[in-house]
Write a structure and sequence with these properties.
heterodimer, A: 278 residues, mainly alpha, 13 helices, 0% strand, B: 269 residues, globular
Chain lengths: 278, 269
């Protein structure tokens, strides 16, 4: 097999081009006045940090942290029992239910968000058919429900995949040694599933923190997250916004990357080869 | 003993009710999309009777033709390229010594863990450095980029189960390095390759964020087209819901077919 090693080399170069180089450029952009579309001489400056005194940016940061935290917490509280329950079922039922949970993810994300938008409108099709009238557009509750529904499967899958592979004999051994159900769970089952929990928390928290279509649509633009700020800074030609500044956007992106790196180090600790990621 | 079984029953009921709640939350939007796709109303605020006209409109009118064609072309092209490259890279990674293999897998997982918005911006920056005009080719490269890690992840477990001596035996029996890959390795990891390809396809066809940052203002797939329409304050035709239901049904059919075929194969072996 040794002779096949060269096959991995182009991958390293490819990943370097698309991960390492843009990260370096983002750092340069964030700490200088370099213009991305007109690369030339640049000076080192901290002027881009001035965005952190803008109320809009501070609010977005706070919203990103609080919304992603609450979403992740609720997803965990709901998701762990679901993953546990699924793992106790017979193989056939387990397969069917798991497939049923994956299937909705094949539906377009944007249309799913639009569907929630319709559900949360008082005069919606849901109100017309079922008589349930909700008025949650532009409210934190609406945004949270949307986020939980969107990211819940990403909490359930990794926890389930760890619980499914767990050696059941360990639990029996704990019981034989006199542990109660609760003790067995706290001392054996839960610690053994911690890798899945870490993956699940990260795979829920990072997308929730950076989502920008969902808060824009369901929050009616009243609730902004970091993603909305990044969009407004980077997408000058699409949005035609006057506040666009790639250098300021770079600073916020770097901040996101810090979260990403922390998450990554955590995941790598519990799951070196990414087996809980798919 | 009675107490214990009662406690277990309660735990089971909690598990069951949370599972029901999860399915409700996950399926509600799909149900709404389905209802909107067969509802005669254009605005979609009320039920105005059953119709299939949106499904017909999809094939008759030109409104959505371009974004749909773009989405499909990118999905097929990026799946083929990402599957070929991902398979090659996975074979290379698997042949490395343990420490290097783990390092490569860590690098492989960066785009999987990274939020899409970071990946999108990173790609956009590289394209602007290389002075690529944003459009078809940049979107294609972007989709290949985010798909490869998933292909590698789904092939790796199969490769690990493969006895390395088999490949060496193939070489001893006269295979060249490349024909050894085709005759010994690929047949043994085919299920991993297929599930990797399916994953790449389903991710490409629904992608919004990465396409949004790498496509420029002219080139649109269905997701970015929907977003652009809504951002301009316009509403789109319910044919979009019909499109989604069709793609959804086709995906389910393909996955069911592949799984059934695999089950049958595994039974006969």
């Amino acid at each position: 097999m040794r002779r096949l090693r060269p096959y991995a080399v182009p991958y390293l170069l490819w990943m370097g081009l698309f991960i390492l180089i843009p990260t370096i450029i983002l750092i340069i952009l964030g700490f200088t006045n370099l213009e991305l579309y007109n690369i030339g001489v640049f000076d080192i400056t901290l002027v881009n940090f001035s965005i952190f005194v803008q109320d809009q940016v501070v609010n977005a940061l706070w919203n990103s942290l609080s919304y992603s935290f609450v979403t992740t917490l609720i997803c965990f509280v709901i998701g762990y029992p679901v993953a546990y329950y699924l793992s106790t079922l017979s193989e056939k039922k387990r397969k069917i239910l798991l497939a049923m949970m994956i299937v909705p993810l094949w539906s377009n994300m944007l249309l799913r968000i639009i569907a929630w938008e319709k559900i949360f409108t008082p005069t919606s099709i849901i109100a017309d058919i079922f008589g349930i009238s909700l008025d949650l557009l532009g409210t934190p509750t609406g945004v949270l429900i949307g986020m939980i529904a969107m990211y819940l499967p990403f909490m359930i899958f990794p926890i389930f995949s760890v619980l499914e592979k767990m050696d059941y004999k360990l639990i029996e051994a704990a019981k034989d040694l006199g542990a109660s159900d609760l003790q067995t769970f706290v001392k054996v089952t839960f610690p053994l599933s911690s890798g899945g929990v870490v993956s699940g928390v990260i795979m829920t928290m990072l997308p929730a923190m950076t989502s920008f279509v969902l808060p824009a649509r369901i929050g009616l633009g009243k609730i902004n997250l970091i993603g909305n700020i990044i969009e407004s800074k980077f997408m000058k030609e699409v949005l035609g916004s006057s506040g666009a500044s790639i250098n300021q956007g770079a600073i916020i992106s770097l901040l996101l990357m810090v979260f990403s790196v922390i998450s990554f180090v955590l995941i790598t600790r519990v799951d070196k080869e990414g087996e809980t990621l798919i | 003993m009675m107490k214990l079984s009662l406690k277990r029953k309660i735990i089971r009921i909690i598990g069951l009710s949370f599972t029901v709640l999860s399915f409700l939350m996950i399926f509600t939007p799909i149900l709404v999309i389905l209802v909107l796709s067969i509802n005669a109303s254009t605005k979609g605020y009320s039920w105005e009777g059953f119709t299939l006209k949106w499904y017909l409109e999809l094939f008759q009118k030109d409104v959505m033709r371009e974004p749909i064609m773009n989405t499909l072309v990118i999905a097929f092209a990026s799946t083929i390229i990402a599957t070929v490259l991902g398979t090659m890279f996975a074979i290379g990674i698997n042949a490395l010594e343990k420490k290097k293999r783990i390092q490569m897998m860590v690098i492989n997982n960066v785009p999987v863990v990274n939020p899409d918005i970071v990946t999108g911006i990173s790609l956009m920056i590289v394209f602007s450095l290389l002075s690529f005009t944003l459009g078809y080719y940049t979107v294609l490269i972007a989709h290949v980029f985010f798909s490869i890690p998933y292909v590698v992840l789904s092939i790796m477990p199969r490769l690990k189960k493969l006895d390395p001596n088999l490949y060496e035996a193939g070489l001893d029996l006269g295979c060249s390095r490349i024909s050894g890959v085709f005759r010994v390795i690929l047949p043994n990891i085919s299920t991993g390759i297929i599930s990797g390809a399916l994953m790449a396809f389903t991710m490409s066809i629904d992608d919004f964020i990465i396409t949004y940052f790498t496509s420029g203002a002219e080139y649109m797939n269905v997701s970015t087209w929907l977003y652009a329409t809504l951002s301009r304050g316009r509403s789109f035709t319910p044919a979009a819901y019909a499109y989604n239901i069709i793609i959804f049904a086709i995906t389910i059919a393909i996955i069911l077919f592949v799984n059934l075929k695999r089950d049958r194969k595994e039974k006969t072996v």
